[in-house]
Amino acid sequence: MTPASVEPSPDEAAETYREVHESAEFEELKRRFRRFVFPMTALFLAWYFVYVLLGAYAHDFMSHKLFGNITTGLVFGLLQFVSTFAITLLYVRWANRVFDPAAEALAARVKGSDA
Q1: Could you give the number of structural domains in the chain?
Q2: Contact (Cβ atoms closer than 8 angstroms) between residue 80 and residue 51
């Protein structure tokens, strides 16, 4: 193997990439990522499209004044921002707790095999 200060050859790098890509650890990492991200994305898109559809087809509901000049549509629009921040916060916490440690362990294993 090559010393740590020397870059691996393109062939060595490609072989390492193939090994990691085909490893059980990498498959597990991808599975964990997908199990979190896909449902969150679907949930957010559903919420967003409900908001758009209500705005397009439920004018009376969306223009209903809750208090003063604050309408249901305005509250739902502001909740879009809140839900975006909430999903981001959930993702960061999940990534810090679950995903990043697993990715770092895999990276350490790969770097350890290069040394």
Answers
A1: 1
A2: yes
pLDDT, tens only, 77-102? 999 999 999 999 999 999 999 999 98
Bridge partner list, 65: 71
Q: Identify residue 86 by its one-letter amino acid code.
A: A
Q: What is the CA radius of gyration of the chain?
A: 23
Answer whether 51's CB lies under 8 Å from 76's CB.
Answer: yes
| pLDDT tens digits for range 25-74 | 889 999 999 999 999 999 999 999 999 999 999 999 999 999 999 999 99
> Considering the domain boundaries, does residue 4 fall inside one?
no
Q: Are 54 and 62 in contact (CB under 8 A)?
A: yes
Contacts of 22 (CB under 8 A, 6+ apart): none
Query: Encoding tokens for residue 60?
Result: 């009376």
Give me the domain span that covers residue 71.
10-114
